[in-house]
């Protein structure tokens, strides 16, 4: 018999009752630790809430609708999962940067601080140390960092760096770029 929603029989006994943490706490954990399982479940949950289809397809459709409503450019966007681990996933830097810019008030404090927290703890920032909050991304041959950096003359700047197929150390190149950006 498939799962169903309905009235429980009078003789029912609650075996387990779990209250989830608030959504912001779940998002913070997901971004801070780069928790791919949380990302996958969030995608499905968003699909269930936004388009009444609680699976990958529903979440991806809800994501596309959200980006379109916000006018965020999506050149070449291909989404197959919530974590970004599929080798078929594709996203342009402009999509990430505009999304971060659009959602700054909701995202900024959820992201780990560069060189000090979460997945950015081991990044060797110099001028950007403690002035960057961002999300890392890594799959075979690809490295990415997208977020915000505080600059002396331009305030907080949104950035998205994606490097595909670098023969060198892409993370070092990204750190260097963010450090340079922090001086403007």
Short structural description:
This protein is α+β, with helices and mostly antiparallel strands and 184 residues long. It is built from six helices and three strands.
Topology:
Blueprint: H1 23-33, H2 36-51, H3 56-70, H4 93-102, H5 104-107, E1 132-139, E2 142-151, E3 155-164, H6 170-181
Question: Can you characterise this structure?
Answer:
This protein has 184 residues and is of the alpha+beta class. It has two domains: 22-91, no CATH class; 105-184, no CATH class. It has six helices and three strands; from the N terminus they run H-H-H-H-H-E-E-E-H. The chain has a three-stranded antiparallel beta sheet with strand order 1-2-3, with helices on both faces. Helix 1 (23-33) packs antiparallel against helix 2 and helix 2 (36-51) crosses helix 3. The termini are far apart. The model has no long low-confidence stretch (mean pLDDT 95).
Share in helix: 25-40%
Helix/strand order: HHHHHEEEH
**Roughly what fraction of the amino acids lie in strands?**
15-25%
Biggest sheet layout: 3 strands, antiparallel
Mean pLDDT: 95
Query: How do the strands line up in the largest sheet?
Result: 1-2-3
Low-pLDDT runs of 5+ residues are none
Total strand segments: 3
Based on CA atoms alone, the radius of gyration comes out at 19 Å
The total domain count is: 2
Structural class comes to: alpha+beta
N→C terminal distance: 62 Å
In one word, what is the shape?
elongated
Continuous helix count: 6
